[in-house]
Write a structure and sequence with these properties.
Helix content: 40-55%
Strand content: 5-15%
Oligomer: single chain
Distance between the termini: 118 Å
Shape: elongated
Number of strands: 7
CATH superfamily of the domain at 2-252: Ribonuclease H-like superfamily/Ribonuclease H
Low-confidence stretches: none
Number of helices: 15
Length: 390
């Protein structure tokens, strides 16, 4: 009788879960999982763009993917999991979120465990989508989602080399592009500052509360908290792709600098520079200056590129811009150029300004101070020698 009551309660909970969340149960005879699916064309309900044209070569190179044949957007599979804890050991992955393009629409599928015993059956659809999509896209997936999933797969004696699959982890690219301009590169920070969206606390749940909320459901059969968990995961899948769209647009069209005020184009220039594409980086920095969106650091970078190309007049102008703003690297670079041009007095002024700046620091670098002072003394000697006797 007790066994029958347990079964009836389990079945009732499953029916309530489906009535609350929608979706369909998988075809497994026992321990089926709840499959949820929704799709969008162009833009999400929150107004973020999900229109990904293509993946720029510079991004593929950065992710160490084969850029020779390009990459079809339909090959991408966005992944995000919700778990019963933050560790890898004994952590249940109770909700797997997956996003992909199909016939021009962006589809979000979610695989939810009605109870922990159904975990093994949650991997069937995951494996199916992994086999039909060649590249994973995550946000911090290399450090969290992938290790957690691999651990759970191994627990069920399923060998799937997720870590070896081609992977674009957008957290690392986001840090490269926005670390210097945003207070944080967490996904919700990027949502607010870059995408211009703010999650509704009435519909969403704080990520740190998710394990507790799922455990509450397991103990009490209360399905209401799962609504917020499912929405949270769905938004993660949507906003990860929205971030991918913004990043690809920003680095695909470097000649249209200033088009998107959300983008740090100096960081984009450095991305190209890191791959040896100096002329592209230089063009971006030049256009930043022409459009009056340059920073003292980007002008200094442009000056260094001009100097490397032996365009000394252009380089000097860049360093003069920074020197007027008392930018230490610009002051030093300008002093070096002026000394090479034998304008020792101007070089000395820059050096003395740099020396005063270093001395004003609460903890000046003694080695740097020594090097600057050596330059000052050398310039004073050159000035003395260049003056006529008598």
């Amino acid at each position: 009788m007790a066994h029958t009551q347990d079964f009836d309660l389990r079945q009732l909970t499953r029916e309530l879960l489906q009535a609350t969340l929608g979706g369909q149960y998988s075809a497994h005879k026992e321990d089926s999982v709840l499959l949820l699916s929704e799709s969008w064309a162009g833009y999400s309900d929150e107004g973020v763009s999900l229109e990904l044209q293509d993946i720029p070569e510079v991004l593929l190179n950065w992710a160490k993917l084969d850029a020779s044949q390009g990459l079809d957007v339909n090959e991408l599979l966005v992944l995000d999991v919700e778990t019963t804890g933050l560790g890898r050991g004994n952590t249940l992955s109770f909700l797997i979120g997956l996003g992909y393009f199909e016939e021009g629409n962006y589809v979000v599928e979610q695989i939810l465990l009605p109870e922990p015993d159904a975990e093994l059956n949650s991997f069937d659809r995951l494996i199916e989508l992994l086999e039909s999509h060649s590249v994973l896209v995550t946000f911090n997936g290399k450090s969290f989602d992938i290790p957690v999933l691999e651990s759970r797969l191994l627990y069920h004696r399923i060998w799937l080399n997720l870590a070896g699959k081609d992977h674009i982890d957008l957290l690392h690219m986001a840090r490269r592009l926005w670390k210097g301009t945003l207070p944080s590169c967490a996904l919700e920070s990027l949502e607010y500052y870059v995408m211009g969206v703010l999650r509704d606390p009435e519909l969403d749940i704080n990520g740190g509360m998710i394990p507790q909320a799922y455990n509450h459901y397991l103990v009490y059969g209360d399905v209401e908290p799962l609504l917020k968990i499912v929405k949270h995961n769905q938004l993660d899948i949507i906003y990860t792709m929205a971030l991918m769209v913004i990043i690809c647009d920003a680095i695909r069209l470097p000649m249209e600098v200033g088009k998107d005020p959300r983008v740090d184009y100096h960081a984009v220039a450095k991305l190209y520079l890191s791959q040896g594409q100096t002329e592209v980086a230089k063009q971006i920095l030049q256009e930043m200056r022409e459009l009056d969106i340059a920073t003292v650091e980007s002008v200094y970078e442009l000056g260094q590129l001009c100097k490397r190309d032996r365009e000394l007049e252009e380089a000097q102008q860049c360093f003069e811009y920074g020197a007027a703003l008392l930018h230490p690297p610009s002051l030093l670079a300008l002093a070096i150029i002026l000394e090479q041009k034998r304008d020792f007095e101007q070089a000395l002024r820059c050096t003395e300004e740099l020396l005063r700046w270093q001395q004003s620091l609460s903890l000046p670098d003694l080695k740097t101070l020594h090097e600057i002072d050596k330059r000052r003394i050398r310039l004073q000697r050159k000035i003395s020698k260049s003056r006529p006797e008598g």
